Amino acid sequence: MKQHSRRPKVVLTHRVHAPILELLSESCEVVANQSDSSLPASEVRRRAAEADGLMVFMPDRVDAELLDSCPNLKVVAGALKGNDNIDVEACTERGIWLTRVEDLLTEPTAELAVGLLIGLARNITAGDRRVRSNFAGWRPTLYGSTLVGSTIGIVGAGNLGRAVARMLRGFAPELLYFDPEPLSAADEALLDIRRADLSDLLERSDAVVVCAPLSAETVHLLDRNRLESIRPGALLVNVGRGSVVDESAVIELLRAGQLGGFAADVFEFEDLSRPDRPAGISAELLAMQDRTLFTPHLGSAVAATRLKIEEHAATAILQALAGHEPHGAVNRPCGVGSAGTPTAL
After folding, report:
1. Are 330 and 213 in contact (CB under 8 A)?
2. Average pLDDT over residues 335-343
3. Is residue 338 predicted with pLDDT exceeding 70?
4. Facing residues of 193 across strands?
5. Do strands 292-294 and 207-210 pair parallel, antiparallel, or not at all (unpaired)?
6. D-isomer specific 2-hydroxyacid dehydrogenase NAD-binding domain: from which residue to which, for each copy (predicted)?
């Protein structure tokens, strides 16, 4: 009797759009999580024990322990841009492809950064609360600041930082950036932006937008010592990674009035690569409603964008399972040749 080959098993840790389930189900057995909640790590391990492919998201931690419990795994596809929550070396050593989505998140996140900056500068949430609470008409209150003609510093000049700079140009600001890798002279001219060291940027900027990824070098890059040098009353916006900014220092500087306001779409407690990360957002920080503006990691939360991100990750899984190098590969797994096909071991 003819034996039927096993369909590869693909596990999805978070909810995806229906077309993605249909795409993967054409050739794979799909184990999905269509709830709004993250699965406990133990449940992810249980579901992925026989998985050939795994699609992961920002709240997931992929480490050696998880990988060792998935002996059939060939590819981990991240529906994300920053992969600091995934052990790249562990994937590589075990012959597992790791992929991520590089560019699809950039423009939506930059757009949100500008929105957070405007919201903070113009007291939009405080104004909304005022209107909803027995509004009696205009009063001379809630005076804020403007982006027009201001000095804005951008920390991190990768794809995201450059996109933020492009979107801010319409406000005619003086733009500064800090990054260990300088932009080309052509890019600096195109963006009308000038490189500065971090202390100079903080001292001169009316607003600072953090676009830096998380690494060993950028954890608390903006710590208390550095933030104390920020221009009095300046605004700080973080859309990079939460742990690039020391949130405890932000609380102290907001309390002291040195920092004029803080907006964020990312938070320290989200950074699973940090064993010492806080358990959540400080209650004191959350209580500072008139000087803070927070969003729940909405950087890529544009419906059409999310579908493209999921499609990219699903396609990478199918490519890897077919023996090809997947799009967005971060690594070259041990045992895989230059053409993307397994080498003889």
Report:
1. no
2. 52
3. no
4. 175
5. unpaired
6. 114-299
- Please tell me which residue in 47, 100, 162, 241 is annotated as part of the active site: 241
268, 270, 310, 325: the catalytic one is 270
pLDDT at 147: 97
Q: Is-catalytic flag, 241?
A: yes
Residue scoring higher pLDDT (282 or 83): 282
Point out the least confidently predicted range of 52-66, 229-243, 324-338: 324-338
CA-to-CA distance for 222 and 228, rounded, in angstroms? 9
H-assigned helices in 26-173 = 41-48, 64-68, 88-93, 106-121, 124-131, 159-168
- Give the sheet arrangement for strand 75-78, strand by strand: 29-31, 9-12, 53-56, 75-78, 97-99
| Pairwise CA distance, residues 275 & 88, whole Å | 17
- Predicted pLDDT at 103: 83
Mind listing the pLDDT tens digit for each residue in 49-75? 999 999 999 999 999 999 999 999 999
Rounded to an integer, what distance in angstroms lies between the CA atom of residue 298 and that of residue 162? Answer: 19
Average pLDDT, the chain: 94
First to last CA, the chain: 32
Please work out, in degrees rounded to the nearest 5, the angle formed at the alpha carbon of residue 45 by the alpha carbons of 13 and 23.
35
Residues with Cβ < 8 Å from 291, sequence gap 6 or more? 254, 259, 260, 261, 262
- Which residues does residue 338 pair with via DSSP β-bridges, in sequence order? none
The reply to whether 226 belongs to the active site is no
Catalytic one of 297, 306, 310, 325: 297
The token pair that represents 14 in the structure block: 């978070």
The strand pairing partners of 99, in sequence order, are 77, 329
Contact between 177 and 205 under an 8 Å Cβ cutoff? The reply is: no
Residue 331: phi and psi, rounded to 5, are -135, 175
